[in-house]
Every structure is written in structure tokens, then in C-alpha cells.
Amino acid sequence: MFSTSTPLIPTIALLISLIIILLFAPSFLPITHRKSPPIPLADELDDLSLFTRATRRAAAKSRLGTTNQNPKIAFLFLTNTDLYFSPLWQLFFNNHSDLYNIYIHADPTVQIAPPSGVFEGRVIGNLHRTYRGTATLISAARRLLATAILDDSSNFYFALISQQCIPLHSFKYVYNALFGTDSGSIVLDKISFIEIKSNESILWDRYNARGKRVMVPEVPFEKFRVGSQFFILTRRHSLMVLRDQRLWKKFKIPCINVHSCYPEEHYFPTLLSMLDPKGCSSYTLTRVNWTGSVNGHPHTYYPSEVSAQLIYTLRESNSSHSYLFARKFSPDCLKPLLDLSEEVIFKD
């Protein structure tokens, strides 16, 4: 038998320890920064310059008292894939060119098919890489807002759309729902349609995703909110988002718990709830089915599920507004959706 003083045993123990550390280190060590890298300083400075120009331009226009006869909806497409449903959206936009603008933020590291039709030339200039579960998605949405504000002072509603979103109504229906033109008069900057929830069981884990007490004092837990990533903001609220630096410095901190890290679902609801809760609907107009969600993704609809009844069901809501958009749909849903477009989707 070996005695405990034999140097072989400590040596073997050390080797085994090293092997265990090498094998299981990813489970112990905080590797979140490798998976969810911080936003580069150069990107931050580029964004800050863009946001400052947008807010200053908006302030100058406001001082001039410019009257907009035809207020527009800015459709902000946030994507890292091809725009699968662009033919359907093309039908949606037809004959309304004076009432909308389109802006696309496409992840510059992903090769996508060149947008055509009404989407041609609408990819914005300030593009930076996006990662799921990081504040880069907040930055991308803010870049879209800033670009839209700089581009056209007639943009008064800003709808954030994903590549897997579809319209549930005609353009005329959507425009009337937002601006209230059915009554014969246009009302600007009424309210923003953004989901804001305060009593969800996930809030505590999400709040501590960056570490305990990291969010204070700027964001106390009782002010922390959750909501859908996709929203429709008024111009006034869009400018609030672009001017913010106080909450942003907290939400841009990389998470140490990647499984509870969804900054884009918290930043906008928390900020607007703190700044102007009465100016927000607290519900979204983009329908999402969270039944049977997997890894943070909602239910995906496939061609076998697409029908007129599905469209009618997706429109239904508990608020005074019908849902205007829905997600998420698999790319091969395009044909059955186009088959329904004339007689169902765009027939209000």
C-alpha cells in the first residue's frame, strides 16, 4: 500500500482536478461575455451621434411649427434573415405611398437577399451586429427610430416589425386605427401601443440577470417592467427613447445569467412606464401566441395551420383595438397567406 506521504497520490489528485476543471469550466465560469459581448465603444459613439442629430432635428422642426397634412406610419423592420413575407407586405402597402415609410435594420454579418419592390433601398445606413438576448437589439430599434425621425418629419407613428410578422388587416384599416381618421379628423401622438406588465413571475430573475443590485438606483425593482419586443410608438415617445441615457447605461450591461436575459423586452416598457405611463396603452397590437413556447420563442405557425379562421382568431383582442399584426410564421407560410390576402387579410 502507498503511504499518504507518497508524492504520487497528490500528483494524481492534481491531475484529476485539472481534468475536471478543463471539462466542466464552462458550467462554472462566467462566460456570458463571450456569448453576449458588451457593445463596442465605437458603436456606442456612432449611435449617440445619430440619436443627438435626430433629437436636435426634431426640436428644430417643432420650433418652426411645421404642419403635416399627411402624417405617416414608419414601419421599422428588424431582421437577421431575408424578408420572407415581402410579397405580402407589398400588397399591404400598394397605393398608399404618401402615408408610410419603410426602414430596415439587417444584421450586417448576415447575407440577405437584396430587398425589392417597396423595400428596395430602405436598409438604413447605421448598421451594427445584433445578438439575441443582448442590448444590441435595443440599439438596433433605437437606430431605426432615429433614422425614421431624421428622414421624414411626417413620421408620427413608429411600428417595430420582425421578418416573421404579417399584417392582419389592410393598410387603410391600420392607418385609421392609429390616427382615428374614421371620425374625419386626424389625431397625432395619441398613445403608444406597447405591452407593459408588472406582475409577471419572471420579473425577479430578469431583474437580476446582470447581478444583484446592478440596476439600482436608476431602476428599482418596483419600477421594472416586461412587455413584447414589438411595439407602435408615437413620435413623442420615440424621442424620449432617443434622449435616454440614464436607464440605457443599466440595460446595456451584459448579463451574467443568459437564460434570463431579454433586455429588449424590458427596456422600452420600463422606460416609458417610468416617463409617461398614462400615455401608453400597456398592450401591444402585435399578436403573439406563447402557448407551448420553446427556449424563449413563441409558437411558430406552419402552412397546415394557415386558414381564414386563423386570421379572424388572431385579430381578436380584449381591448378596444383589433390586433393589427401577428407573429411568428414560418417562411413557407407565404403561399397560403397570399391565397388569403384578397378575400380575408385585406378585406376588412
TrEMBL record:
* Subcellular location as annotated: Membrane
GO CC terms in record: membrane
Could you list this entry's UniProt keywords, alphabetically sorted. Answer: Glycoprotein, Glycosyltransferase, Membrane, Transferase, Transmembrane, Transmembrane helix
Q: Which PANTHER family match?
A: CORE-2/I-BRANCHING BETA-1,6-N-ACETYLGLUCOSAMINYLTRANSFERASE FAMILY PROTEIN-RELATED, CORE-2_I-BRANCHING BETA-1,6-N-ACETYLGLUCOSAMINYLTRANSFERASE FAMILY PROTEIN
This chain's source organism reads Daucus carota subsp. sativus (Carrot)
Domain of life of the organism in this record?
A: Eukaryota
Q: Which GO terms describe its molecular function?
A: glycosyltransferase activity
Name assigned to this protein: Uncharacterized protein
Q: How does it sit in the membrane?
A: Single-pass type II membrane protein
* Parts of the chain that traverse the membrane: 12-31
Name the Pfam families on file: Branch
